[in-house]
Structures are given as structure tokens and as C-alpha cells.
Amino acid sequence: MTTTLPAAPAKDPGTTGRRPVNPRAGTGRVRHSRRTKALVLGGLVFFTIYSLAPIWWLIVSATKSQRDLYTSNGLWFADMHLMDNLRQLFTYQDGIFLKWMWNTVFYGVVGTTGMTLLCVACGYGLAMYDFKGRGFLMGCIIGSFLVPHALLTIPSFLLFTDLQMIDTPWAIIVPSFFNAFSVYLAKVYAEGAIPPELLEAARIDGAGEYRIFFTIGARLMSTGAATVFLLGFVGSWNSFFGPLVFLRSPEKWTVMVGLYSWLKVKVDASADLTGMVVVGSMISLVPMVVLMLSMQRYWRSGVTLGSLK
After folding, report:
1. How far apart are the first and last CA of the chain?
2. Residues 6 or more apart from 33 whose CB is under 8 A from it?
3. Which of 29, 51, 114, 258 could form a disulfide with 100 if both were Cys (CB 3.0 to 4.6 A apart)?
4. Are 135 and 266 in the same domain?
């Protein structure tokens, strides 16, 4: 007796190997994606407003007169007195604000340039060379992050007093040469940006270690060096405690210490120092904006300055 099995239903060749589509699952994913995008966008808008609101208040307040600064809406303009405020700022006490700006730029550029060179070289050495005690040295560098800078104020003051560096630019410039976090940042960047094979090939060709560093390592670390320089310059520009302790003469103060001295007085017989502090704070932002815009090309270029086949 022969049994005939029913034939299997023919499969649509267009659906072979495909899973059935669940319309509810697709709708849920789309709905979740839209909700996530809305939350992310709302968070970005909130943090943007939170970050720009103080700058907006600063710009608006810098355009007001003394009376409007205390009586008008703080978030909107009144009568325009920006040019008068700038003229008063740059001529008060024979233009001492410009002297403070120059001191801050000088301390920042010289100190940060030296710090960038030292920290990039140290990070390059820790990343590219294997020597005895490297792990212990790296542990000391990381452990130094835990030491607050305020604890070093008294020892530094005593040391600078013995070296006769108090009330001199070197009391601000020399400490800025050394930054443990920048060394760590340069080391991490060198490990990812510099192929060891490229250095070995240069050594085989007869290049010395200094030539390898300046012609290969430093160029491949240009983006990391730019980051170290920017962070160091911003820290030096906003430095307040060090210049307040180590500098005595008003002609040698930085712009932050100078504005603080005006803010303590608040009112002078010839000028409203509170309004001048607001205008001076706005002017002090200009170098930071210029520096950020001028260094964008380093982050855009990345580490594409060299290659290894």
C-alpha cells in the first residue's frame, strides 16, 4: 500500500530567507528613536542656554551706563554707552588695564610654550622608551593629581623668597612650566598617535633620537600639543591665587587680580569701578575666543600628518 504525502506549499522566492516583519516592533523602534532624539536635543539646548546666558548678560551689561546697570533689565539692552565705557576703561589710571592685559598675555604665552615643550617631550619619552622605574615614575605623576595646588603655596613662597623671585614675572612663569596632567595627556596621545615601527625605521636609517623626536614625534603629536597648549593657556589666563600671592606691585598684576582689586573698591570718585569690571571681563574673553578659532585647524587635521605602510 502506497501512502501519498501532501506536497509542501510552494515558497515565494521573494520571501525566502527573510524573517516576518513585525510592524509593531518597527513602530516601537521609530517611536523610541524620536523620543531619544527629542531628549538629546532638549538637553543640548538647555546646556547651550546655560553656558551662553552669563556671556549674554556680560555683553548686555557692558553697553549700559552706571544708572542703567542697576535699574534696567539685566538681560536686555538700554541706552548704548559701550564706547564711553571702553574709553573710561582704557584711560583709567593711565591705562593700567592694558598693562594688566599685556602681563597676562606675556605670562601665559611664555609659560605655556615652555610647559608644552617639556610636557610633550616627557610624554613622548614615557610612551616610546622602556626604562627601569617607568611604572613608578608614572605612578608618581598620576599621584600628583591628588595634591591640591593650594597646599604648595607656602613652600613655593618660601622657595621663591630665597631665590628672590617674589614680585617678578618668573614667580608666575616658572611654576607654569610643570604640569603633571599635561604629561599624562601627552603620554596617552603619543601611545595612540606614534607607531613604534616608524621610529625603528628612522633609527635604521641613521636618525638620532633628538632628530626623530623633532621631525617625527613632535609632528605626529601636533594635535595633542595643541590641546596641551590650549588647556595650559586657559589655566594661566584664569589663574588668580598664584598672582595674588606672588605679585605685589599693581603694574605686574594679571587682569584677573586687577579686576578683583577694582571689585573690592567698587566706587571711585572719578569712575564706577563695578561697570568697569563688567567691561573689562568682556574684553578679557577676546583672547580666549581668538585662540580657540586660530587653533581649530589642529583638531581638524588630526593625526594624518604621517602614515605607515
Report:
1. 74
2. none
3. 258
4. yes
CA distance 43 to 195: 39
pLDDT tens-place string over residues 56-81: 999 999 999 888 888 888 889 988 99
Range of the domain at 36: 31-80
- Phi first, then psi: what are they for 17, rounded to 5°? 80, 5
| Cell triple for 10 | 510552494
Nearest 5°: phi and psi at 272?
A: -90, 100
Do 212 and 151 reside in the same domain of the chain?
yes
Helix, strand or coil, per DSSP, at residue 60 = helix
Q: State mean pLDDT over 201-205.
A: 92
Per-residue pLDDT averaged across 209-219, rounded? 92
Tally of domains within the chain: 2
Which of 62, 80, 98 is where one domain is finished? 80
150 and 74 fall within a common domain: no
Backbone angles phi, psi at 120, to 5 degrees: -65, -40
Question: Looking at per-residue confidence, does 146 or 26 come out higher?
Answer: 146
Model pLDDT, residue 150 = 81
Query: Which residues share a beta bridge with 267?
Result: 272
Examine the pLDDT at 12 and tell me if it is beyond 80: no
DSSP, collapsed to helix, strand or coil, labels residue 303 as coil
The tens digit of pLDDT for each residue in 86-106 reads 999 999 989 999 999 999 999
3-state secondary structure of 267: strand
Amino acid at 222: S
pTM for this prediction? 0.81
Q: Which amino acid is at 223?
A: T
